[in-house]
């Protein structure tokens, strides 16, 4: 059954409804699979960012187990930022006849042909976190353009600019360190950030960072410092936390002691600690559990030949598909002021994990005890 036909299926259910249905002994209806021996192929893009294997993978595995009475299995592959490897991994899962795929693409365009093969084999695909091209059946992500808006607004706040401020009202220029060109999310982050920053500050230099690698961001920042001078940079837009770490390392290596505000994304533990220390200004906190749970729920619905129906909040058009059922998870700006109300309250990290010995004084000042 191809993607178009699957989307036309008449059965529809929200995740909570699905869970109750899975748990009951309902007689299987024609076209709807209620057996629990479902095999889910999970393909994640890389292991540079801590989130994928530390949070996404275990949450998806736990949710799949819950939705299948512990009879479902997850076959996992990490592409380590290699698009060609990910294509081979996906094709291997097609050969192994998994029931459904959750794919977080390394390269949204390069994966399209393999997703087409999955569709030909009757295997539905949920695009996870990044919007893959090809005949996908569902999409789960954060409001990625809003991420860029939040980052841009936060940077303006740190620079003491805002609505009504005039261009050039801050001393120095900002550097924009965007994500990888192969990641469609990076384009959305960039778009949102530019909407906030253009006309409000002077953008001295802008980079698209290959593979999102911190070392590439560090090298780019070194080049920016050589061009603009260590006293000529008022702030740095960094699209994620890993790159923010590389950027801050470059600033310190250049002898910058009064660090400019640096943004981030993902609320990695190291980034939260840098925020406590005053090295990084902010990050974007994305609640991984709701995103991963939504992907798992979509996958099980599709594996059961049920439509996503009320499980999706909206639809989205991709470069190759129309009206793909979509779930968008909201995001939050995280600064010193709300660490306890966000990542600590949600159980992402404990105060003990954040407040290592070197940060004892800073944590006490923030009331993190």
How does this model look, in words?
The protein is α/β, with parallel strands linked by helices. It is built from 14 helices and twelve strands. Strand 3 (100-103), helix 5 (112-120) and strand 4 (125-128) form a beta-alpha-beta unit. Helix 4 (83-95) packs parallel to helix 5 and helix 8 packs across helix 9. Mean pLDDT is 89; it is low at 3-28 and 162-170.
First-last Cα distance: 55 Å
* Oligomerization: single chain
* C-alpha Rg (nearest Å): 22 Å
The main β sheet shows up as: 7 strands, mixed
The gross shape turns out to be: globular
Structural class: alpha/beta
Poorly predicted parts: 3-28, 162-170
Please count the helical segments: 14
Order of helices and strands: HHEHEHEHEEHEHEHEHHEHEEEHHH
The residue-averaged pLDDT reads: 89
Tell me the strand order in the biggest sheet: 2-1-3-4-5-11-10
Number of DSSP strand runs = 12
Fraction of helical residues: 40-55%
Strand content: 15-25%
Strand-helix topology:
Blueprint: H1 3-7, H2 15-23, E1 39-44, H3 51-67, E2 73-78, H4 83-95, E3 100-103, H5 112-120, E4 125-128, E5 138-142, H6 144-158, E6 173-178, H7 184-197, E7 203-208, H8 214-228, E8 233-238, H9 241-253, H10 269-277, E9 283-286, H11 288-303, E10 314-316, E11 324-329, E12 331-334, H12 340-344, H13 351-354, H14 360-366
Brief descriptors of the model:
alpha/beta, three-stranded parallel β-sheet, globular, 14 helices, 369 residues, disordered N terminus, seven-stranded mixed β-sheet
Summarize the structure.
With 369 residues, this protein is an alpha/beta fold. It has helices spanning 3-7, 15-23, 51-67, 83-95, 112-120, 144-158, 184-197, 214-228, 241-253, 269-277, 288-303, 340-344, 351-354, 360-366; strands at residues 39-44, 73-78, 100-103, 125-128, 138-142, 173-178, 203-208, 233-238, 283-286, 314-316, 324-329, 331-334. The protein contains 14 helices and twelve strands.
């Amino acid at each position: 059954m191809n993607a178009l036909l699957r989307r036309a299926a008449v059965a529809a259910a929200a995740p909570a409804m699905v869970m109750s249905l899975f748990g009951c002994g309902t007689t299987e209806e024609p076209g709807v699979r209620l057996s629990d021996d479902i095999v889910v192929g999970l393909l994640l893009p890389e292991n540079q960012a801590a989130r994928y294997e530390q949070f996404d993978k275990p949450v998806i595995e736990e949710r799949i187990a819950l939705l299948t009475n512990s009879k479902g299995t997850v076959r996992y592959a990490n592409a380590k930022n290699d698009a060609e490897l990910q294509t081979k991994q996906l094709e291997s899962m097609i050969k192994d006849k998994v029931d459904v795929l959750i794919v977080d693409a390394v390269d949204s365009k390069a994966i399209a042909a393999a997703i087409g093969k999955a569709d030909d084999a009757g295997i539905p695909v949920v695009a996870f976190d990044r919007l893959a091209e090809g005949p996908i059946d569902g999409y789960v992500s954060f409001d990625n353009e809003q991420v860029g808006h939040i980052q841009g607004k936060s940077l303006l706040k740190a620079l003491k600019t805002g609505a009504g401020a005039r261009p050039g009202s801050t001393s120095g220029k900002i550097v924009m360190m965007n994500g990888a060109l192969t990641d469609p999310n990076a384009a959305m982050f960039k778009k949102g950030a530019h909407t906030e920053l253009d006309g409000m500050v002077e953008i001295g230099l802008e980079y698209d960072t290959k593979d999102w690698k911190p070392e590439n961001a560090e090298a780019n920042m070194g080049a920016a410092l050589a061009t603009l001078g260590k006293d000529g940079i008022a702030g740095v837009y960094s699209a994620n936390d890993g790159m923010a770490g590389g950027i801050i390392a470059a600033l310190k290596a250049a002898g910058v002691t009064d660090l400019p505000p640096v943004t981030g994304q993902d609320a990695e533990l190291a980034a939260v600690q840098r925020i406590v220390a005053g090295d990084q200004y902010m990050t974007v906190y994305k609640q991984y559990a709701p995103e991963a749970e939504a992907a798992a729920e979509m996958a099980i619905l599709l594996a059961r030949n049920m439509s996503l129906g009320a499980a999706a909040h909206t639809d989205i058009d991709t470069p190759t598909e129309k009206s793909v059922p979509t779930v968008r998870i909201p995001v939050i700006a995280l600064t010193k002021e709300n660490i306890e109300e966000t990542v600590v309250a949600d159980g992402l990290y404990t105060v003990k994990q954040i407040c290592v010995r070197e940060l004892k004084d800073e944590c006490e000042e923030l009331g993190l005890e």
